[in-house]
Every structure is written in C-alpha cells, then in structure tokens.
Write a structure and sequence with these properties.
Shape: globular
Helix content: 25-40%
Low-confidence stretches: none
Number of helices: 10
Order of helices and strands: EEEHEHEHHEEHEHEEEHHEEHH
Structural class: alpha/beta
Largest sheet: 9 strands, mixed
Number of strands: 13
Bound molecules: 1-O-phosphono-alpha-D-glucopyranose
Length: 270
C-alpha cells in the first residue's frame, strides 16, 4: 500500500501566540529560518508524500501559495506538489480534514498537525504507514499524565502492545478528568484510510461545539479499524510561546550545531 499524499490542517488562528499572530498567521511563524508549516511539509516529503494538501483559511491560503508555489521551488521540496484548500469556516479539526476529501479521492493519506514539529531524525510517519498496511487507520499515541491528557485526545486500548503497536477500540477528545479512558494520548500524526471521510461527513459537533477528528476515529475504533503506534519521543509544540522558543533552540542547535556543550546541557538539548 502506497501512502503518498499528506493532509496538513493549518487554519488555526493561534490565539496562544498573540500578539505575534494578530497579523502573521500561526502557520507562518518562524522557527529558526522557515515557517512552522514548512517543517510539516518537509516531514511529509521525507515519509514519501508527493502531494501535500494544506487546509488553510483564505488569508493564509494566499500567503502559503506565495511561499510554496509562487516564490519558486524550495530545497528538498522540489518533488512535492503543494495544494492549499480553503476552509471557509472554522468548524473544527475534523471539518478541516473533511475539506481535503475531493483531492484525496479514495486514497489512504497521512495527516500532520503543524503545531507539533518532530525532532530531527525521529520521524514517526514511516512506522504509522507500516502499521496501516493491513488497511487499518493508525494514530500516533504516547503515555501522558492525567494533567496533560485532558487537553488531548485519549484512546481506549483493546489489545496488548506488540512491537509498539496496539488495537484501539475508541477515542475521546479532551476527556474530563473523571472519564479518562487510558493514559495513551493522541499526538498529531495519523495515517487514515479514506473511509474516515464517511465518518467525518456524518458527525455532529462534539467537544467545544466543533467537528472533532477524534470522534471519527472513535467510530473507526468501534468498528475494529484503528491502531495506535506508541512513541516515547518528545514532539516540539510550537503553538505556545515557550514551546516555540524551545523548538527554536532544539532545531537551531541541530541546524547550526554551534551551541556549546554547557549551553546544550543547560537547555536540556542532549
Ligand atoms: C488536537 C486533537 C487532539 C490531539 C492534539 C495533539 O487538539 O484534537 O486529539 O491530541 O491535537 O496535539 P488541539 O491541540 O488542536 O486542541
């Protein structure tokens, strides 16, 4: 099974990054020398994507087109087609992914949430693609504390962990403390079979009154069609100021390799 198309939802307004995002969209905030969304596209390209569908709002759509298409090819991204798709209304992550249905057209696809950047050399998508080869959809999960998991999607495991993979029977978006189903939380990396669109199309608004991707995953889980790949690696969350600062240090250190050993230790960069 080939997975060579990626959907990258990037329409969020970035309220946690005000005032930076009053004018500049969250997806175009810079980490080291490139906008955050470019890291997501590069990750997709490394995993074999030949096409990346960026779900954006109208304003971001224009800028993203300028960045990726009108300004000429970017090094390393010469072989990936970038297609911005405009989400007219901010109705939730699930709704954003559904906007890609026509372009994905019955193919399995990767889904990458651009708020999190993977650490250099620690890609997870190849493992997700491997686990999806039997026709399952696959989500990247990690053990989290109860304090963290209430702000994430949480999954319901239905099997033992075998080679880092488990079956999942359902998922709950941002569970209340009293209804946390397990401590396995969702990180923003997925491989979906196209049947996810049928679920997304019929969903009622869920958590926060939005169409939730996790609710569609819950339905796949109940049908026995969802797996989780467990990772223990830290993703770099660039959706808040401290996370953006940390990502700049980690990725800057990787790119330039010139932080001193002492500074690296102080900054916890390894
Ligand atoms: C989204 C998803 C959530 C997932 C999280 C990962 O939430 O809805 O299931 O755990 O990304 O970062 P958000 O962070 O956009 O609220």
């Amino acid at each position: 099974m080939t997975v060579d198309i990626a959907v990258i939802p990037a329409a969020g307004r970035g309220t946690r990054m005000r005032p930076a995002t009053r004018v500049v969209p969250k997806a175009l905030l810079t980490v080291v020398d490139r906008p955050t969304i470019q890291y997501a596209v590069e990750e997709a390209a490394r995993a074999g994507a030949k096409e990346a569908i960026l779900i954006v709002d109208l304003e971001v759509g224009h800028l993203v087109h300028q960045h990726f298409v009108n300004s000429g090819p970017l090094p390393g991204l010469e072989h990936i087609k970038i297609r911005p798709v405009v989400q007219e209304e901010p109705l939730g992550l699930g709704h954003a992914v559904l906007e890609a249905e026509r372009m994905v057209a019955h193919r399995p696809f990767m889904c990458i949430l651009a708020d999190d950047i993977v650490r250099p050399g620690l890609d997870v998508l190849p493992d997700l693609i491997g686990a999806a080869s039997d026709g399952s959809s696959v989500v990247c999960i990690q053990e989290m504390t109860p304090e963290v998991i209430v702000s994430k999607g949480a999954v319901i495991p239905t099997s033992e962990l075998v080679d880092g993979v488990m079956s999942i029977g359902g998922a709950i978006e941002k569970p209340d403390e009293s209804s946390i189903p397990s401590l396995y939380g969702v990180l923003g990396r997925y491989v979906f079979q196209p049947e996810i669109f049928e679920h997304l199309a019929t969903l009622e608004p869920g958590r926060a009154g939005e169409i939730q991707l996790t609710d569609a995953m819950n339905q796949l889980g109940m049908e026995g069609k969802l797996k989780g790949v467990v990772t223990d690696q830290e993703f770099l969350d660039v959706g808040n100021p401290l996370g953006l600062l940390r990502a700049s240090m980690v990725l800057g250190n990787h790119q330039f390799g010139e932080f001193s050993a002492i500074a690296r230790e102080e900054l916890g960069l390894g």
